[in-house]
Structure formats: C-alpha cells, structure tokens
C-alpha cells in the first residue's frame, strides 16, 4: 500500500517506537577483546598506531581481565609479542610448553576461571621471516609442514587450558588436523574457531607493529595463503571446507570492508559467525576522532552495530572495553 497509507516515518517519529522496531542491538556479550601480551611481570607499552591500546605484561594484563569481566565481555583473545631472540625459521617457540602463551593462559584461567580465553594459532610471531608458515629453500610456504607445526601449537594451547583455539594462518587442511589431535588428546570441549575467510588485507598494518612482525615480514606479502580481496564465492568454499573439517565457529576478517562476506556466510551456513574488526579499522576511527573529525563514541557503536546487522554473532574488537562502558551508560 503506497503513501499516504504507508508512511515509513510513523515508526521513526518517537523514541518509544524506534526502540520497539529496532532489529539489531549491541551488548557486551557480543565482544571478544584482543590483547597484546608481553613476556614481563609489570611492563606496559603503548602501541603508537593504535591509540588506547597497550602491550601488557602479566600484572597489567590480569588487571585488564578484571575490567573485561566486570564489563560483561565474555572472552579475551591473546596475541603474544615474542622477543626477536626466540624467533627462528622453524618457529619451535610456538609450541613450547613454558612459552608466553601457555603461561598467560594458565595465569588468566587461574584468576578468572569463567572468562573465555582464546589463542591465536599461527606461526608469524615466532618466525624470523614473519610469515604464518614455514618456508622452503626458495621462500615458498610449505602447507603440510606448516599444518604439522600448527597442530603442535594448538595442542600446546589446549593443554594449557585455552577455551578457544583460533587458527588464523589460512593453510589448507589445518582444521581437520587440529580437530583430530584435540580429540586424541582428550580436549573434547575446546572450541575450534576458524579464521575461515581471512583476506590479504592492508588493514592489518597496526597489528603487525603491535606484535613486531612487520619488521620481520619486510616487504613480504601473505597473498599465497590469505584470500584475494576481490573474491566472494571463494569465501563460501573456505567456510564449507572448515565446517566439514570440524570447525565449531567461523570468522570473517577484516570486518567493516567485508560486510558482504559476513552476510553471505551467516546466510548460507547459519553457524556461529564472528568478525574481526581489525587494527586498521580501529586506527582509522581513532585518528579521525583525535582530529575532531568524527564523534568517536557514535562511529564506534555504529560500526559495531553494522557488523552485527550484517550477520556476525560476535566481534573481535579493540573497542570492546570502551563500547561496553558506553552501552552501560
Ligand atoms: C596473524 C594475525 C594477524 C592478525 C591476527 N592474527 C595479522 C596477519 O595476518 O598478518 C590481524 C589482526 C588485526 O589487524 O587486528 N596470524
């Protein structure tokens, strides 16, 4: 029925009506807070390209976990800053039982048993060349050898008590291999969250500064394993394979420039779908807000809401603590 019988603005005319017809809402329950972890007891260091984000030693990290818990955010995701002296071509430090990640998982789970702890399964913090995989003599990524290393890493994280292991490397076949090992080790309830559709994106720049992999990577790219930004159908194939291989949840990354992919994945599979609102997305809004060009609170909440509206069940976001505080007001 056309105008004037239908007036779309009737439902927008009042606050009460707008609240009643709102289709998507944000809540602290929707967030996972990514944290950068330093191998130190008390240190904290700012990340210049991510204002408001710090690399955290154990004590300040536990203090942040306290804030996360109090804010009602369900989980944190750990990203280690590995000392250059521990990086090798073959990344053995990635599965050392006394490594930074397993020690951090244990410390958090001991103090905050109810807080979800997610770990990143990928070799880039541990390789001297900054790639997520192992290289052959010609510098090509060795898929199957890398998968074997990722299996050790995921098993090490699960043994330390990680609730969610999240392979972010984009090697073929790693989900099946990791799932099989977790089952064999008796880690039946560890959630496998696959970065299933992860694109070769320039929006990861500030993250690579934060963990110190930018220097190792140099001019090297990741386009032989991360997806081409022009591809959409391929994301559905990636997700289908990872679900078949035993992923519980899947992720699309980055978030805002890839809302079409989030909508496709959620619409096609209806499985728990996560989006990573990555470091470059964070840096853009922080920089514009610092210049007085955008209202930080409004654009952050609108961006996160838009990612949810596209179909994401949950969002990894560096804005999580701020957004949770704003939502609580
Ligand atoms: C590494 C990894 C990256 C991010 C999460 N895990 C960077 C990369 O693939 O180079 C990026 C996160 C962000 O930009 O916030 N496996």
CATH top level?
Answer: Alpha Beta
Order of helices and strands: HEEEHEHEEEHEHEHHHEHEHHEH
Tally of DSSP helical segments:
12
Q: What is the overall shape?
A: globular
- The helix fraction, in percent, is 40-55%
Class computed from helices, strands and strand pairing: alpha/beta
Bound molecules: ligand PBG
Describe the structure.
This protein is α/β, with parallel strands linked by helices and 329 residues long. It has one domain (26-328): TIM Barrel. Helix content is 40%, strand content 17%. It has helices at residues 15-21, 58-70, 100-111, 143-160, 174-184, 205-211, 213-217, 233-245, 259-269, 279-290, 296-310, 320-328, and strands spanning 31-37, 44-46, 54-56, 75-80, 116-121, 134-135, 141-142, 164-167, 191-198, 249-253, 273-277, 314-317. The strands form 2 sheets. The chain has an 8-stranded parallel beta barrel, surrounded by 8 helices. The model has no long low-confidence stretch (mean pLDDT 97). It binds ligand PBG. Ligand PBG binds next to helix 6. Residues 120, 122, 124, 132, 168-169, 204, 207-208, 222, 278-279 line the site of ligand PBG.
